[in-house]
Design a protein that fits this description.
The chain has 446 residues and is of the alpha/beta class. The protein folds into 2 domains: 2-42 and 381-442, Immunoglobulin-like; 46-374, Alpha-Beta Barrel (TIM Barrel). Helices cover 25% and strands 30% of the residues. It has a 9-stranded mixed beta sheet with strand order 2-1-22-19-18-17-3-20-21, with helices on one face. Helix 5 packs across helix 6 (213-226), helix 7 runs parallel beside helix 9 and helix 10 packs parallel to helix 11. The longest helix has 17 residues, at 170-186. It starts with a strand and ends with a strand. The model has no long low-confidence stretch (mean pLDDT 96).
């Protein structure tokens, strides 16, 4: 097999460095990783991040050359991360420059005042720009959902602080979500996934709305009845892993929704609970599990290596537990975690320092890239087992062209030597302390 090893390490400052895999000598100090191409899991949709109003605002604060560089860093498949998926808020979220909905007219049940003008100032141009980097045959897989209905539809009369959807506005809210999809289509942007609400179990100081199991079931029924395009898939939940199994089980107890729900969206803010993904998969193996939000709190200083390792741990664990789609949160933030109208001090893989006009690449940028660059849409996750009591983490896929990608992370302070076995072929590589590597294997005939 032809071998290529791509490497990122903390201490040696290597970033996506390429190495020929050396013919290291045999020995008993290698940790074996056994890859079984016959043990197949889920099909991969892709990787990406969220097209928030704040992300578009942070980008617009940079000079044009830096804007182009930042966009290429994510969406160019040759020099960037090769992103091919994204998430869109319907109306304002916690990362918006101002509070807004798509229809501010109180009582406008016909949605005659529905408008995407707010998104035309930032989000829509950002998506159109991202699409220019994808190859003709590729599609930007987009998923959209609201953080809150318009204030006039809610019990608390406020887009913030939770509240619920008024009983008399379920029909119009379903129309509101579907109209958003239609209006984006007029802009040449196809949305492939929708659901009723972001974090329906959370009350936040930013746009939020609570849905009980019964209420989410009702809204999903309405959305399913209105979604006649088979290319638009219905997802559910869109909150943390730790509570997902009980909610999904309740929703799928409904015979109609069991046929209509295509996937389950979840967030990565509850550490662990990856067994919940297995439980949901066992309820219905045809469900697509979609990790739709993950981020880190803004670090106090420049030492952010733990953020990259945190990201990679989540991605490896999600992929090894049936996840098909993995989406980060904001594509871009400025040096103040903004611009935005509420306080929520997060960071993003690319930070755009508007004051100094520089691009800062967090460690998470490189760690995400070890997956998104080399795991292609249509790849099939295959088994990769580390033998013994190792502290290494890994996952593997077979790409559509038949090649294999094996991602291995070493979060320890010690150098690790591994021997990766695929069929009868063995590749020996060395991982520095606090490093991640992607081993690419192709048959000589490819």
């Amino acid at each position: 097999m032809r071998e290529d090893y791509i490497y990122t390490a903390k201490n040696s400052n290597k970033r996506f460095s390429h190495y020929c895999v050396n013919e290291l000598p045999d020995g008993d100090d290698y940790e074996p990783i056994i890859v079984d191409p016959e043990s197949e899991g889920q099909v991969i949709i892709g990787f990406g991040g969220a097209f928030t109003d704040t992300a578009s605002g942070a980008l617009s604060q940079m000079n044009m050359d830096l804007q182009k560089k930042a966009m290429m860093s994510y969406f160019d498949s040759n020099i960037g991360l090769g992103y091919n998926a994204g998430r869109i808020p319907i109306g304002a979220c916690d990362f918006s420059r101002e509070l807004y909905s798509m229809d501010e007219e109180d009582g406008d049940e016909s949605l005659s005042r529905f408008s995407t003008e707010s998104d035309k100032k930032g989000i829509i141009p950002l998506i159109k720009w991202a699409k220019t980097y994808l190859k003709d045959k590729d599609e930007l897989y987009l998923y959209a959902l609201p953080w809150s209905p318009p204030a006039w539809m809610k019990t608390n009369g406020d887009m913030l602080h939770g509240g619920s959807l008024k009983e008399q506005h379920y029909e119009v809210m379903a129309d509101y979500i579907c109209k958003f999809v239609d209006e984006y289509k007029k802009e040449g942007i196809d949305i492939r996934g929708i659901t009723s609400q972001n974090e329906p179990d959370e009350i936040q100081n930013w746009p939020s709305c609570v849905y009980s199991e019964k209420e989410e079931k009702k809204m999903l029924h309405l959305l399913a009845n209105r979604t006649t395009d088979d290319n638009i898939k219905l997802l559910c939940w869109d909150s943390n892993r730790n509570h997902m199994q009980s909610r999904v089980k309740a929703l799928l107890a409904d015979e109609y929704l069991r046929k209509e729900i295509d996937g389950v969206a979840f967030h990565g803010y509850s550490e662990g609970y990856y067994e919940e993904l297995d439980k949901v998969h066992s309820i219905n193996p045809d469900l697509k599990l979609c990790a739709t939000e993950f981020c880190s709190v803004k670090p106090d200083g420049d030492d952010d290596w733990y953020i990259g390792e945190k990201y990679a741990h989540d991605i490896i664990s999600d992929l090894n537990h049936w996840t098909s789609l993995w989406l980060d949160w904001n594509l871009f933030l400025d040096e103040n975690s903004g611009p935005k109208f509420v306080d929520n001090p997060c960071t993003s893989p690319i930070v755009l320092n508007q004051k100094e006009q520089i691009i800062i690449y967090r460690s998470s940028y490189y760690y995400i890239g070890h997956f998104s660059r080399y795991i292609k849409r249509g790849a099939v996750r295959i088994s990769a087992n580390i033998q013994g009591a190792s502290k290494l983490e890994c996952c593997a896929v077979r790409n559509p062209d038949g090649s294999f990608a094996v991602v291995i992370m070493n979060r320890t302070e010690q150098e690790k030597k591994v021997a990766v076995k695929v069929h009868s072929h063995i590749s020996r590589v060395v991982l520095e302390p606090h490093s991640i590597g992607t081993l690419l294997l192709k048959s000589e005939r490819q």
